[in-house]
């Protein structure tokens, strides 16, 4: 193992006494981010004003940072751009895939997919009003469901609830044999495990930067377009920065070359500045090392919880090759138990209806913390400290 995780841990600002097991929902603050954002605000926006678009290089941030993310997800240079939200990028990618397969009408997904992706696909089908169908099958039934009726497979590589991991390479190959295109949502993959979009032959992919990439709440999403589609992709949502000459202000749309045509609105400069500093954490980090260490931490936690918390049921695949960087357990009182854990400094999260979810990010998490988290969880269950009215009261964000 070449990556120095003691060194990477020092790059994060995590509150004293907190065991943070929720980087799969919102990554913690890298120490370098506040100064970089302050520079963007004061030295760039404050002193350069509108000239910063050129002088500070703001307009090129989506492509420059896209290439840095591309290194973490196995993307070819120039194939990743940034901006907008993951929901918008999913809409763009799926609409482009449908446009590339006009004779087909089925979007195939699975029941473990994140609801936003399902809503977007159904809304797109309704908007097109051309007989498109969102076909939802169980995760284990996806491969068998790929046939010649499918226009695009729309899959999230790692299930947000259970952590179950799809075989990207195998399912992409199966889609291509059937004449379909493959879109992958990397929300729980990018920065968590090795991804090889080019090697897997993915057609489109998108992901967020506020989870394992630690760019902060509301950070922009990224979008990947395979080189073979870059000059022909036609997203249903086109914006002025996806135009070949945005400052010509032409009334008609001409797509920009390559993946830049997938840009929509003005780049969120302050969030991109945060992302720029957050990506510095990844210098010298090998994804294979991250994967090996995260699986070790998750295995350690699973073994401890199963030994001392018999009332919890593991819902994450036991086989490390079949899961992402999280472990999820089910309990009828999962919400209250998680609130009790958070109150005692162990931060995970809850996913309806009954899932306690824990993420394992070795950039800032070690074995001692995993052991302490399991022990605190066991004690909360043993003493029943979770059964307080305030722990049962549902907050707006769970």
TrEMBL record:
<feature type="binding site">
    <location>
        <begin position="114"/>
        <end position="117"/>
    </location>
    <ligand>
        <name>pyridoxal 5'-phosphate</name>
    </ligand>
</feature>
<keyword id="KW-0378">Hydrolase</keyword>
<comment type="subunit">
    <text>Homodimer.</text>
</comment>
<dbReference type="InterPro" id="IPR010111">
    <property type="entry name" value="Kynureninase"/>
</dbReference>
<feature type="binding site">
    <location>
        <position position="86"/>
    </location>
    <ligand>
        <name>pyridoxal 5'-phosphate</name>
    </ligand>
</feature>
<feature type="binding site">
    <location>
        <position position="240"/>
    </location>
    <ligand>
        <name>pyridoxal 5'-phosphate</name>
    </ligand>
</feature>
<comment type="similarity">
    <text>Belongs to the kynureninase family.</text>
</comment>
<dbReference type="GO" id="GO:0019441">
    <property type="term" value="P:L-tryptophan catabolic process to kynurenine"/>
</dbReference>
<dbReference type="GO" id="GO:0043420">
    <property type="term" value="P:anthranilate metabolic process"/>
</dbReference>
<feature type="binding site">
    <location>
        <position position="266"/>
    </location>
    <ligand>
        <name>pyridoxal 5'-phosphate</name>
    </ligand>
</feature>
<dbReference type="GO" id="GO:0019805">
    <property type="term" value="P:quinolinate biosynthetic process"/>
</dbReference>
<keyword id="KW-0662">Pyridine nucleotide biosynthesis</keyword>
<dbReference type="GO" id="GO:0097053">
    <property type="term" value="P:L-kynurenine catabolic process"/>
</dbReference>
<feature type="binding site">
    <location>
        <position position="185"/>
    </location>
    <ligand>
        <name>pyridoxal 5'-phosphate</name>
    </ligand>
</feature>
<dbReference type="Pfam" id="PF22580">
    <property type="entry name" value="KYNU_C"/>
</dbReference>
<dbReference type="GO" id="GO:0030170">
    <property type="term" value="F:pyridoxal phosphate binding"/>
</dbReference>
<dbReference type="InterPro" id="IPR015421">
    <property type="entry name" value="PyrdxlP-dep_Trfase_major"/>
</dbReference>
<feature type="binding site">
    <location>
        <position position="156"/>
    </location>
    <ligand>
        <name>pyridoxal 5'-phosphate</name>
    </ligand>
</feature>
<protein>
    <recommendedName>
        <fullName>Kynureninase</fullName>
        <ecNumber>3.7.1.3</ecNumber>
    </recommendedName>
</protein>
<keyword id="KW-0663">Pyridoxal phosphate</keyword>
<comment type="pathway">
    <text>Amino-acid degradation; L-kynurenine degradation; L-alanine and anthranilate from L-kynurenine: step 1/1.</text>
</comment>
<feature type="modified residue" description="N6-(pyridoxal phosphate)lysine">
    <location>
        <position position="211"/>
    </location>
</feature>
<dbReference type="GO" id="GO:0005737">
    <property type="term" value="C:cytoplasm"/>
</dbReference>
<comment type="function">
    <text>Catalyzes the cleavage of L-kynurenine (L-Kyn) and L-3-hydroxykynurenine (L-3OHKyn) into anthranilic acid (AA) and 3-hydroxyanthranilic acid (3-OHAA), respectively.</text>
</comment>
<dbReference type="InterPro" id="IPR015424">
    <property type="entry name" value="PyrdxlP-dep_Trfase"/>
</dbReference>
<dbReference type="GO" id="GO:0009435">
    <property type="term" value="P:NAD+ biosynthetic process"/>
</dbReference>
<feature type="binding site">
    <location>
        <position position="87"/>
    </location>
    <ligand>
        <name>pyridoxal 5'-phosphate</name>
    </ligand>
</feature>
<feature type="binding site">
    <location>
        <position position="210"/>
    </location>
    <ligand>
        <name>pyridoxal 5'-phosphate</name>
    </ligand>
</feature>
<comment type="pathway">
    <text>Cofactor biosynthesis; NAD(+) biosynthesis; quinolinate from L-kynurenine: step 2/3.</text>
</comment>
<dbReference type="GO" id="GO:0030429">
    <property type="term" value="F:kynureninase activity"/>
</dbReference>
<feature type="binding site">
    <location>
        <position position="188"/>
    </location>
    <ligand>
        <name>pyridoxal 5'-phosphate</name>
    </ligand>
</feature>
<dbReference type="InterPro" id="IPR015422">
    <property type="entry name" value="PyrdxlP-dep_Trfase_small"/>
</dbReference>
